[in-house]
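Incident log, entry 3
Record: Group II truncated hemoglobin (142 residues)
Problem: checksum mismatch between cached and fresh output.
Input:
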Amino acid sequence: MNTPTLSPYDRLGGEAGVRRLVERFYALMDELPEAYTVRQIHPESLAGSADSLLKFLSGWFGGPPLYTAEKGHPRLRMRHLPYRVGPVERDEWMLCMRQALAETVDDAPLRAVLEKAFADMADHMVNTTGETCACSAPATSA
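Fresh output:
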């Protein structure tokens, strides 16, 4: 008898687990001075960003496709093109995500898989190189 493989969404504990990850991620973005540059490209309130990320991750992790049901295909790179996303922003984003994963995901093999997937996505989002500046307008929630 084959045991069904649980999706990352289920392994995280469903919506509650994904919500914990997203809430911790954005709390770290606000708390860590090392995340200053990436925080500047987000709106003052992170509520809309958190809602979008929760909905995106739900589907990406194998749960309900909330983001696509509401907004269509994520087109992450296209949606982020108006904002300067360079190596600094990528690295700061990953700093927050790695720490959020470490604090909220007890399953070490799952955490490693998710960290790799997030790192690949973060690399894909880079749309500029070189020094960063604080001249980017704050993002609206995607």
